Amino acid sequence: MRRSRAGYPFQFVAESSRQKRGKQTMIQPKRVLCIHDLAALGRASLSAIVPVLAAMGCQPVALPTALLSVHTGGLGTPTVQDLGSYGPAALEDYARLGVQFDCIYSGYLANEEQTALVRRAWELWPDALRVLDPVMGDHGRIYSGLSDGVCRAMQGLCADAHILVPNPTEAAFLLGKDPASVPADEAEARRWAQSLAGPGQRVVLTGVPFGQRLGNIWAEGENSGCLYTPRCPRSYPGTGDLFAATLTGGVLGGASLCQAVETAADFVGKAVFASPEETRYGVWFEPYLHLLAPPAPKKVLNIVLVEPRIPQNTGNVARTCAATGARLHLVGPMGFAIDDKKLKRAGLDYWHLLDITYYNGLEEFFARNSGPYYYFSTKAPARYCDVQYPDGCYLMFGREDRGLPEQLLHENRKWCVRLPMRADARSLNLSNTVAIGVYEVLRQWDYDGLLAEGHLRNYEWE
Q1: 53 with 32: CB under 8 angstroms?
Q2: What pLDDT digit, counting tens, does each position of 154-203 carry?
Q3: What total of structural domains would you count in the chain?
Q4: Distance between CA atoms of residues 30 and 431, nearest Å
Q5: DSSP, res 148
Q6: What is the pLDDT of residues 48-88, one digit of tens each?
Q7: Closest to 63 measured CA to CA, from 42, 95, 86
Q8: Among 110, 118, 164, 108, residue whose Cα is nearest residue 138
Q9: Residue 26 falls inside a structural domain
Q10: How confident is the model at residue 2 (pLDDT cuts 50, 70, 90)?
Q11: Could you tell me if 246 and 336 lie in one domain?
Q12: 271 and 370: one domain?
């Protein structure tokens, strides 16, 4: 038999409208408008933010406020190109195109025009999550290049943001304290974070020094917490951008604030401690981006029962589908009611795990699905185990007394498979046949997404 480069028999490639391979349904990634400066060489601001968000499955849309030849923090004075007129024009372009943003994430803003740019983005997309890293200072000092007007404008943005990610210097300034002051202990750090959090706001106070550890304190409503990480003796530019970007990606991915803080702290900590002692070029985070990638979507297996007659069989099949994550399709007319007690009893308490769809007949089923289909029948010419089953495939099984319609089998000869058995045996039980087929597919998929190791109740495996 000829085989393709991928190892699949050619006859199992889709050949008809009913045998088109099912395609993964693509969902628009969370789109994040990132309003920051862009350093061409370095690992800070957009140079760090864009790859982190992309690795986490988001679509970052970079809106640079300025272009820098290198990032600030050890590489000398950069060549800077201000992009004052670009930002407002880009926002109007996106609005005209009907682009929607799930999040607007901003950081260092050098002048009042740039703070107004963030405010305008919030006005254009009022439903977007507003993440603000109020970059104004570090190590106990406010940056000398920031005017009082910019700092006041940043304070105004902080009051209207949804998530604030300040460091201790910025938090002290926002609270009206000496920027050089730091919380004395975790309890005081929590009070700082909760004081910064207005109604409906979430705050993450990053990098609070506690001896040989750093504390990342989060506050949300009346709840707060602290996550400690080891303190690196070296200081790298861009760590705040890495942390805030990872936090943003985590929240957009559905993580709680506490979970997002844990992910950000873990990622930044691993990258920092693995980076060279030469700090000028920032954190070597690139080798660790894979840690942020969302898990690959689980493969989908579909089980189709055509006109089943015996409720216990269907109940057993439902339990198999629930335990393995396969989707169940029931095609009528059926020989029992859906609420049949025997059906429910066979499925036990697994029904809440079941993904099930009902159809009035085969015509409706084929109209709503696109295959590829594999027809299990005692009349089939090929063995079920000689097929390579692709993601999204449908295993089709007929009624207990007659099987699948012969015309359907005849029209799809290349897709018909059987379980080997003795010549004088009529057939296997329907639910047993389904289970065998399901686990052959799962074996080929290396039991994707299923628990492969069990545990004793009263003993430990040695």
Answers
A1: yes
A2: 999 999 999 999 999 999 999 999 999 999 999 999 999 999 999 999 99
A3: 2
A4: 42
A5: H
A6: 999 999 999 999 999 999 999 998 878 888 999 999 899 99
A7: 86
A8: 108
A9: no
A10: very low
A11: no
A12: no
How many Å apart are CA 10 and CA 3, to the nearest integer?
6
Cα separation, 413 vs 98, whole angstroms: 49
- First-to-last C-alpha distance (Å) of the chain: 45
Looking up residue 350, the CATH number of its domain turns out to be 3.40.1280.10
Domain extent, residue 393, equals: 298-444
At CA 168, angle to CA 212 and CA 34, rounded to 5?
115
Cβ neighbourhood burial of 254 (10 Å; 0-12, 13-18, 19+): exposed
Q: Is 317 part of a structural domain of the chain?
A: yes
Q: Helices 148-160 & 112-124, crossing angle to 10 degrees?
A: 20
- Which two structure tokens, joined as six digits, stand for 383? 């063995």
For the chain, give the longest Cα–Cα distance.
92
What distance in Å separates the CA atoms of residue 138 and residue 291, rounded to the nearest whole number? 28
Same domain, 355 and 276: no
Q: Which of 292, 323, 357 is the last residue of a domain?
A: 292
* Pair 271, 124 in one domain: yes
CA 148/CA 145 separation, integer angstroms: 10
Backbone angles phi, psi at 306, to 5 degrees: -100, 115
Q: Quick one: how far is CA 29 from the chain centroid?
A: 9
Whether 150 and 112 have beta carbons less than 8 Å apart is answered as: yes
> What letter represents residue 452's amino acid?
A
Indicate if 338 and 216 belong to the same structural domain.
no
Structure tokens at 328: 């169940």
Task: With beta carbons less than 8 A apart as the criterion, state whether 368 and 361 touch.
Answer: no
Strand pairing report for 394-397 and 382-383: unpaired
Q: What is the pTM of this model?
A: 0.66
Q: Which of 56, 141, 66, 79 is nearest to 107 (CA)?
A: 66
| 21, pLDDT greater than 80 | no
Same domain assignment for residues 151 and 262 = yes
Q: How far is residue 200's CA from residue 223's CA, in Å, rounded to a whole number? A: 12
Token code pair at residue 45: 């601001």
